[in-house]
Amino acid sequence: MPKCTGQYGTPERIQADVYAIPIPSETTLFDKTVKQICPELRNLISALRENGDFSGKADETVTLATEEGRFVLVGLGDTDAMGVERVRRAAAQAMKEAAKFVAPVVALYCPLEEIVRKILPVSFEETAVAMVEGALLSLYSYDAFRKKKADQKKGQIREVMIVTVDEGYQSRLKKGIQEAQIMVEAVELARNLANAPANVVDADALAKEAATIGKKLGIKTVILKKTEIVANKMGGLLAVNRGSEKDPRFIVMEYNDKKQRLKPYVLVGKGITFDAGGLSIKPASAMEDMKTDMSGAAAVLGTMYAIAKLKLPIRVIALIPATDNMTGGGALCPGDIITMSDGTTVEVRNTDAEGRLILADALLYAQRYKPAAVIDIATLTGAVVVALASHATGMMGTDEELKETLQVAGDATYERVWELPLFDEYAKMMESDIADLKNIGGRWGGAVTAAMFLKHFTGDLPWIHLDIAGTASIEKATDYQPKGATGIGVRLLTRFLQQMK
Ligand code: BES
Ligand code: MN
Ligand code: ZN
User: Fold this and answer.
1) Residue 196, C-beta contacts closer than 8 angstroms, at least 6 positions apart
2) Which of 381, 437, 475 best tests ligand 1's pocket when mutated (most atoms within 8 Å of CB)?
3) Which of 81, 155, 190, 501, CA to CA, is 20 to 30 A from 493?
4) pTM of full prediction above 0.85
């Protein structure tokens, strides 16, 4: 991750290889920005606008090499339903343009405070956070397994200076940068884990990573191994693990900053380190990216990292059931009936509906904490991808206030959630002829029927299920999400917990 610092002053006072300036499209705000940040370019930029080359529209960029230095102008657009997301994107676009130069040091200008207030509208600090998130997350690349690391290439961006020309805003800027750097580290942690191949991040490696994070940040971490998983009668995790060469793990982390006896929030993350489908095996093309089937676990670990570094005054428990879903000789068979720790019997009709089996164990385990709320996050169904593509996470749950808070957190972080219903009729679709439940519904409504299965194991706890199958990993890069793992859920859940504290 490049270094990130806060600075004050116009370009002539700042030493940088490229100056990037976000500019809104509305005429007076456009002029004000140019006048206050780069008055020496006034004529040049006016000419650009008159010629129709740059008008400050969203997604518009222009690059100028002048005697005063190299400049990247990026459009902020007008008052925009996208709010502060526009700033993340503009920052990311600015980095992409700047990277075309040999530019070790980039100065990225904050929009004028007045503009922030008018068109975003969020606090200056929040804008600073968004600038850093957009800039740094866009520079991420997964190169743990490359000889030549992207950030070691010559001329790559080594430092991003976030600069304000508003007097008296430096301390707010510094505070925003600090918080944003923690968020970016946490998202990168999640991206790295999810992008790592299954032969590297297996259940044991995931558990070791959790233990390392726990030790570093003072989060109590306990790893249950197979004998303890057996002792806890975790029938779902053990069933899915039957086809594997490797033992399962069950990760328990507890963050409690002030050591208070608060009711905890429990986060449950699906930790399928590879999903071959089991004996209900997936076709090759559907299996290609199944190393990311532990993205829920990665999001939970990233969130634990962020809240511990931010020292949020709350109590949070993380539960991660971890195994791969393979086809070994002892594998779970379609038709098998398994028993969960509360005695519920499940007829497994399809071994590829494995996520719900391991999550059920974690949801049952969560009850011992008498939590304020349980939130599970999982790459659970292809059906949610059919419904929402990669633009929203499917949200289902039993508590209106939690759903509303998540919705707000989703809009603020642009890790948006969209609710699907949990009508009683859907529960009928999960009834088995010979056991208490079966693990698949019918052909339709797969995201909801999966959630109805989970609901059975939540008792009367306030509970939310987030299906990130569509959002956790993407085929086509966006401004600040490269192709592959997005680290989705980290900013959403951290923001949610900030709101709940
Ligand atoms: N891990 C998959 C869901 C998934 C699909 C994640 C696409 C990411 C992208 C899950 O375990 C699964 O296989 N679900 C099945 C359930 C079905 C058998 C009821 C599915 O959605 O096809
Ligand atoms: Mn599956
Ligand atoms: Zn899966």
Assistant:
1) 144, 291
2) 381
3) 81
4) yes
Q: Where are the beta strands (DSSP E) in 229-299?
A: 249-256, 265-269, 271-275
Ligand 1 centroid to Cα of residue 387, in Å, is 13
Confidence (pLDDT) at 151:
65
In short, whether 353's Cβ falls inside 6 Å of ligand 1 is: yes
| Whole-number pLDDT of residue 120 | 84
Whole-number Å distance between alpha carbons of 7 and 170: 7
Whether the CB of 2 sits within 6 Å of ligand 1: no
Name 249's bridge partners.
Answer: 322
What is the helix (H) or strand (E) element at residue 375, kind and residue range?
Answer: strand 373-378
Q: What are the tens digits of pLDDT across the range 145-161?
A: 998 877 667 679 999 99
Q: Which residues pair with residue 464 across a beta bridge?
A: 375, 397
Spacing, Cα 45 to ligand 1 middle (Å): 51
Give the pLDDT confidence score for residue 460 in this predicted structure: 93
Which fold, 190-500?
Aminopeptidase (3.40.630)
Three-state DSSP class for 106?
strand
Distances from the Cα of 267 to the Cα of 274, 296, 326, 493, angstroms: 21, 10, 26, 9
Is the pLDDT score of 259 beyond 80?
no
- Positions of CATH 3.40.630.10 in the chain: 190-500
Give the C-alpha separation, 219 to 316, whole Å.
Answer: 10
Q: Where in the chain is the domain with CATH 3.40.220.10?
A: 3-167
Average pLDDT across the chain, whole number: 96
Cα–Cα distance for residue pair 171/165, rounded to 1 Å: 13
Architecture of the domain made up of 3-167: 3-Layer(aba) Sandwich (3.40)
